[in-house]
Amino acid sequence: YLSPHHGDPPDVLPTVGDHLQRTTLANVENAVKVLIPQGIAQSGRSCEEFLFFISTHGSQKYDAGSDSWYSTLDIISGDSDHGGSISPDTLNDWLCGVPCSKVTVVIEACNSGGFLPTLKSCPALVGQPANPQKRFVFTSTSPSGTSWGDIDNADDPNPGDVGSETVGGYIEAFGSSAADLAHPKGQISFREAVKYAKTNDV
Description:
- This protein is of the alpha/beta class.
- The protein is built from 5 helices and 8 strands.
């Protein structure tokens, strides 16, 4: 778990277990590229599904070389010396190294829809077999949209949720028995969470 609140007083710091580190660009990269693959290897088991969830600020930057704009995720570390931005190509490179057959990516940030084209699959590398990793990518906005917090209008079928719309419903699903839709078994799949979010949010 990475949080910009790491090191804050106990009444401010979220309690998320023993793996809490401050959110810095280096820590995010290390978690995805090093810690996750190491943990899977040490477990001695194959990895079927991996969830990467990030809630942060997003923006668009201009690339003069291609005369185009691209989306970025802005890492808020609480320390100006350790922040930075993650581009779609960089995040895709990190995720392609995760040794799991299915990878779900949930991005809650402004302009996050700009990550969709790049994150849909791993690029084919010359002389290497194709990466069989299957992807599901869920963003809170379009490439040019703003990710607002939860807005419970009169027509919202789920006024009790928190977080941004739809993504908030997706997150809520993992704590709701009502999301166990197909064959109740006490476990919520990614697919069930998506269906729950579509049904219970606007």
